[in-house]
Amino acid sequence: MKENLEQVREKIDFFCQKAGRRVEEITIVAITKGVGEEKIQEALMSGLSRFGENRLQEALLKMSRFSEEGLEWHFVGRLQTNKTRKVVRHFQVIQSVDRPEVVTKIVQELENLGREDYPIFVQVNLTGRETQGGVFEKDLFPFLESVSLWPRIRVVGFMTIGPQADERAVRTAFGKLRMLRDEVNKRGILKNEVRELSMGMSDDFHWAILEGATMLRLGRVLFGERVK
């Protein structure tokens, strides 16, 4: 795993130079779905501190094993309203907010916990595939306007899943997310400026860097093939 991470960091450095960006602008979220404890321990020893999961029960088991201070767990899967309570209680960040009913449940749980300023990402669907989840582009601004009215949450970024296509199509989708973020900031739709762009996974993170990604969700390229 350590060698894989070194190769990933070299690739990040190369594409940051190509894009005229600083390596410090890029954060890795290690996706640990199906990854064993030994490899997660290696990731920790290698300096990674942000981990992403999309299966609640699997994530809770790992959290009980790895409770080091400073770890940040990101929920990156489709969020079901009946699981929102546990997700809010155990994850530091939710990257897959895409429906009004999910926002309502998140805020209700934050009220129960007495928590403020909880960071969320709004997932944007740029492929047209409903199974991926996410707010469609045509619905994004109205959705954000409604989100801005809720207390206790703060939109810190946007997340998207790139299409399974060639470089041009993938970069077009990632570039679109960057432009949408910039337009949201320009219009002042939210109470705060949004910086983060969570886009790019094992097969396309280099293209995401070229299009402005600040957060990469990396699994297989770090840990190898997942255990089924």
Quick structural gist:
By secondary structure, the chain is α/β, with parallel strands linked by helices. Helices cover 44% and strands 18% of the residues. The relative contact order is 0.15.
Can you put this structure into words, describing what you see?
- The structure is a single chain.
- The protein has helices at residues 2-19, 37-45, 56-65, 84-90, 100-113, 137-147, 167-187, 205-210, 220-223, and strands at residues 27-31, 50-53, 72-75, 93-97, 118-125, 135-136, 153-159, 196-198, 215-218.
- It is of the alpha/beta class and 228 residues long.
- The chain has one domain: TIM Barrel (Alpha-Beta Barrel), CATH 3.20.20.10.
- Strands 1, 2, 3, 4, 5, 6, 7, 8 and 9 form a 9-stranded parallel β-sheet that branches.
- Helix 5 (100-113) links the parallel strand 4 (93-97) and strand 5 (118-125).
- Helix 4 (84-90) crosses helix 5 (100-113).
- The radius of gyration is 17 Å and the shape is globular.
Could you give the distance between the termini? 19 Å
Mean of residue pLDDT? Answer: 96
| Silhouette | globular
| Strands, count | 9
Number of domains: 1
- The fraction of residues in strands falls at 15-25%
Low-confidence stretches: none
Percent of residues in helices: 40-55%
C-alpha Rg (nearest Å): 17 Å
CATH architecture: Alpha-Beta Barrel
Helix and strand composition category: alpha/beta
Helix/strand layout:
Elements: H1 2-19, E1 27-31, H2 37-45, E2 50-53, H3 56-65, E3 72-75, H4 84-90, E4 93-97, H5 100-113, E5 118-125, E6 135-136, H6 137-147, E7 153-159, H7 167-187, E8 196-198, H8 205-210, E9 215-218, H9 220-223
Parallel strand pairs: 1-2, 1-9, 2-3, 3-4, 4-5, 5-6, 5-7, 7-8
Helix pairs in contact: 4-5
